[in-house]
Design brief:
Elements (H helix, E strand, L loop, with lengths): L4 E7 L3 H11 L10 E8 L3 H5 L9 E3 L2 H5 L6 E4 L6 H10 L3 E4 L7 H13 L5 E3 L7 H12 L5 E9 L16 H4 L4 H15 L3 E2 L1 E7 L4 E3 L5 E3 L5 E9 L5 E9 L8 E8 L4 E4 L5 E8 L2 E8 L18 H16 L11 H20 L3 E2 L9
Parallel strand pairs: 1-2, 1-4, 2-3, 4-5, 5-6, 7-13
Antiparallel strand pairs: 7-14, 8-12, 9-12, 9-18, 10-11, 12-13, 14-15, 15-16, 16-17
Bound molecules: nicotinamide-adenine-dinucleotide.
């Protein structure tokens, strides 16, 4: 290990900023060799949002303007979790200030914003940049990834990767920034949830070649929180069907499903790989369960293994216990800091070039849905839309 500590500043003290600070605060949980993050700074224009962070023992800087954090020589890494319309400017400023960065998805509000961030990354090759996506770090999902990589599934028939929420079925819920085009972006649910569904297929080397999208805006008005109604023009649900190819040159469809109106789903993230020899699946609805098929001649039976607490990076928790969402966040950050520190990492955090591909898919999805056509991704010019 090269460095014992990295000093981290957080930009955006909302939901995800707190999740990281909490994971860092219990770093003693991790027994695997890894540098320790020290949360030394928080930036948020809202003093109420900063208050929660001010109780952290190592916090030195609590500032409204994020540029103040970027000027601090003793801040090595920035985690940035802010609304999508601010990504391009703030991410570029962070990278140009030579701070290593974990950015949040969608990594730019649209393709053009993402291109600006990619340019800043290209101009600063000494800066380490990754994009947040924690769900694949469930041990049962890691087991699924190992099975697919080992070739046990045989020739792939199809892949389903999705993220289903249902909170928008509550029609009395006031609209927030994730439901407005000006702040969330045109992608709607895809910008919010899409990268989560692409991490495992992309890391497994499944390259999308064509795309057909079905997008739905089911509820077009929502309470504005002030007694009236506001237009809600963002996509609620999206299904992308991509003809894809793997490293062996095999072709198969990958279905990317992102839904904010999926009855019965609180936060259901899932990945299913169907193969000729064997199929495997994982869902956060059954976080400990790794499912695979056993072949009995003409029939296949689903088998469930209770994986328990066996994460990629060892911790103090016994292997018989249950693994949960805060653990995925911490494991992802271990992967981030190990890679930053020069270690080899089996399953990497989402890469900047993968965010660019994600944007190409999501932009192509808007075009596909508009014209009701299949988009050839090899020739598609995402700047044309
Ligand atoms: N990885 C995940 O599972 C996950 C989950 C939810 C959200 N996200 C992503 O995290 C990001 C933030 O989402 P959230 O749910 O935490 O939002 P949030 O609304 O809870 O928090 C955003 C925070 O950013 C602050 N902010 C606004 N402008 C700022 C500025 N100029 N400088 C500093 N802070 C500023 C706001 O005051 C707010 O406290 C988004 O990109 C979102 O897509 C990721």
């Amino acid at each position: 290990m090269k460095k014992e500590f990295y000093n981290v500043g957080i930009i955006g003290g909302g939901l995800m900023g707190k999740e990281f600070a909490s994971a860092a605060a219990r770093w003693c949980h991790v027994t695997a060799e890894t540098p320790t993050p020290r949360v030394v700074g928080i930036s948020d224009p809202n003093p109420e949002a900063r208050k929660w962070f001010e109780k952290l023992p190592e916090l030195k800087y609590s500032v409204a303007d994020y540029k103040e954090l970027l000027e601090k020589d003793d801040v090595d890494v920035i985690y940035v979790a802010i609304p999508h319309n601010l990504h391009a400017q703030v991410y570029c400023d962070i990278i140009n200030a030579k701070k290593h960065m974990m950015g949040e998805k969608p990594f730019g509000m649209d393709y053009q914003a993402n291109a600006k961030i990619m340019k800043a990354i290209k101009n600063n090759p000494d800066v380490f940049v990754r994009c947040c996506s924690q769900h694949p770090y469930y041990p049962a999902c890691q087991e699924l990834i190992r099975w697919v990589k080992s070739g046990k599934v045989g020739k792939i028939i199809e892949v389903h990767s999705g993220f289903r929420h249902s909170s928008d079925l509550d029609l009395s819920k006031p609209i927030n920034w994730k439901r407005t085009i000006s702040i969330n972006g045109e992608y709607g649910c895809m910008g919010d949830l899409g990268i989560h569904t692409m991490h495992v297929p992309f890391n497994l080397g499944f390259i999308p070649k064509t795309l057909y999208a079905q997008l739905s805006n089911i509820i077009k008005e929502r309470p504005d929180g002030k007694g009236g109604m506001a237009p809600c023009l963002t996509w609620d649900n999206a299904t992308l069907i991509c003809d894809s190819v793997n490293e062996k040159g095999e072709e198969f469809p990958v279905f990317y499903e992102t839904k904010r109106m999926a009855p019965g789903c609180t936060n259901s993230w899932y990945i299913e790989v169907y193969g000729v020899d064997c199929s495997v699946k994982f869902s956060t609805d059954d976080a400990n369960g790794f499912w695979y098929t056993e072949n009995f001649g003409k029939e296949q039976a689903w088998c469930r293994v209770n994986i328990g607490y066996k994460p990629a990076y060892s911790t103090i928790t016994g292997s018989i216990f249950e693994f949960g969402f805060p653990d995925t966040v911490q494991q992802m950050w271990v992967a981030f800091f190990r890679e930053l520190d020069g270690e080899t990492v089996d399953f990497k955090c989402f890469l900047p070039e993968q965010t660019q591909l994600a944007h190409k898919l999501q932009t192509a999805a808007l075009a596909s849905n508009l014209h009701k056509v299949v988009v050839d991704l090899d020739t598609f010019d995402a700047n044309s839309i």
